[in-house]
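A quick word before the example. In earlier lectures we treated sequence and structure as two separate objects. From today on, think of them as two lines of the same record. Here is 3-oxoacyl-[acyl-carrier-protein] synthase I, chloroplastic written that way.
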Amino acid sequence: MACIGMFSTCPFEVSLVQYEGLRMTQKMQMFSAACMPKRNILASAKKCKTIKAMASPTVTAPKREKDPKKRVVITGMGLVSVFGSDIDTFYTKLLEGESGISLIDKFDASSFPVRFGGQIRDFSSKGYIDGKTDRCLDDCMKYCLVAGKRALEDANLGYETLNNMDKTRIGVLVGSGMGGVSTFNNAVDALTRKGHRKISPFFIPYTIPNSSSALLAIETGLMGPNYSISTACATANYCFCAASHHIRSGEVDIMVVGGTEASLIPSGVGAFIACRALSQRNEEPKKASRPWDKHRDGFVLGEGSGVLIMESLESATKRGARIIAEYLGGAITCDAHHMTDPRSDGLGVSSCINKGLEDAGVSPEEVNYVNAHATSTLAGDLAEVNAIKQVFKDTSELKMNGTKSMIGHCIGAAGALEAITTIKAITTGWLHPTINQDNLEEDVTIDTVPNFKKKHEVNVVISNSFGFGGHNSVVVFAPFTP
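And the structure line, produced from the sequence above:
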């Protein structure tokens, strides 16, 4: 599904008013779905009620993977977020319905029509990046290194442990939607003001999107597959899908996977303003991100990084790892429609969900929670809901929330932070609210967990991410059962 619905003078672009279901007063609006406790959970997993898989004369009941070499489990998580770098604190803030959105002060935004965002404050790389290296790196890479190393620690894969393992069987795949934009911006500034001789020698290696993944591998000595995927706001989910294939094929035992982004800089904010993508609630920044609310007016730009340790069940069992949850499967599709507009029929998204469930061996009836892309844009929020309704015919037991309502839209890192959120929902049994739900769209008949957290035993959860170019991605998680 494409990320934004843009009004354009280009003859081949589709005006947002053509999207079914939107009010006529919205036809000049620009953006839709924006883009651009440590313990084994066996006890809680046993409580999950058994739901009969969908069956019909032409569709056989789905079967989940049983081979421990091909089952993919989550054994570690790490993040850098607007709520800090501790995962329990991060999720507690979400459950409390606290907004991490504030006025920008990392640069002078006083002349900008949008002066707020999901800015990371008080970030420290101490203990994870040496001082000399830290001074050279783009924030995008710093966030990745801290999140990645914290995830390895969480999985009991510290330096000593890794040194006794076959590092050629551990890969790294951390994507970014925009890469080192600060480094790029600084180089252009140096070029225009002082000439090419003043361009930093770090310009190329610290700008290209694969740099974060590469540096994490260099810092940890991991010699398995190493690359980066860049599919705008769908980036992290694409990485999870690709990483699972490396594990299931037997090529590796472990993948360090996620997304990272640090585009909350003058050119980044200015570019999204130029696209008319962002909310302009400067007087009420904490109320700006409001998925599915009738008065939403755009998304809120955020930043951060999220990393998961994905591992074969066989590997995790052999080393006695703590298993947090299971990755059941995922899928990617393309709208093949428009660079920014969503398909009005929702086909790209609904087919992606169906393919993801098929890959996971899950029937629609088994899913009882959706962590939605839900960026707080006019067309995208409704398009996603319509696609979900196409797949899940009975939504009476379905819960759906929007993490971006509190942390903003972190572009390439969004899916990674939301994957961590879904896993915490599994392990805690609590869903965070979608805040700023004051006047819900009539078409949104699914429970959005409005404004207050809810107790909810998660059976199977899907997490959606969509990006510019019509990139759709869905990943499926569940409690781990042997």
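Notice the following. Confidence is low (pLDDT under 50) at residues 1-59. We will return to this example when we discuss secondary structure assignment.
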